[in-house]
């Protein structure tokens, strides 16, 4: 398992990259500016299976 940080990971290519690595079983930290898109990404990640879509911290 690897760990990735994806800036702009709630839309477009960043989102696709984040989901790709989650499907591969990697840890992914996503940085984005829109809390709603962040929640959408977490919901999609949670549908991928156990361990995905966990939220470790909220927007600051």
Q: What separation lies between the terminal Cα atoms?
A: 27 Å
N-to-C SSE string, H for helix and E for strand: EHEH
Rg, rounded, reads: 10 Å
Question: DSSP helix count?
Answer: 2
Shape: globular
Numbering strands along the chain, what is their spatial order in the largest sheet? 1-2
Number of domains: 1
Count of strand segments: 2
> Structural class of the secondary elements?
alpha+beta
Which whole number gives the mean pLDDT? Answer: 88
- Could you tell me the strand content as a percent range? 15-25%
Largest sheet: 2 strands, parallel
Low-confidence stretches: none
Helix content: 40-55%
Description:
The chain has 60 residues and is α+β, with helices and mostly antiparallel strands. The chain has one domain. It has 2 helices and 2 strands, in the order βαβα. Strands 1-2 form a two-stranded parallel sheet. The termini are far apart.
């Amino acid at each position: 398992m690897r760990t990735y940080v994806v800036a702009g990971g709630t839309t477009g290519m960043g989102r696709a990259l984040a989901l790709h690595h989650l499907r591969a079983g990697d840890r992914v930290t996503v940085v984005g500016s829109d809390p709603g898109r962040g929640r959408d990404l977490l919901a999609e990640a949670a549908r991928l299976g156990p361990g995905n879509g966990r939220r470790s911290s909220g927007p600051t």
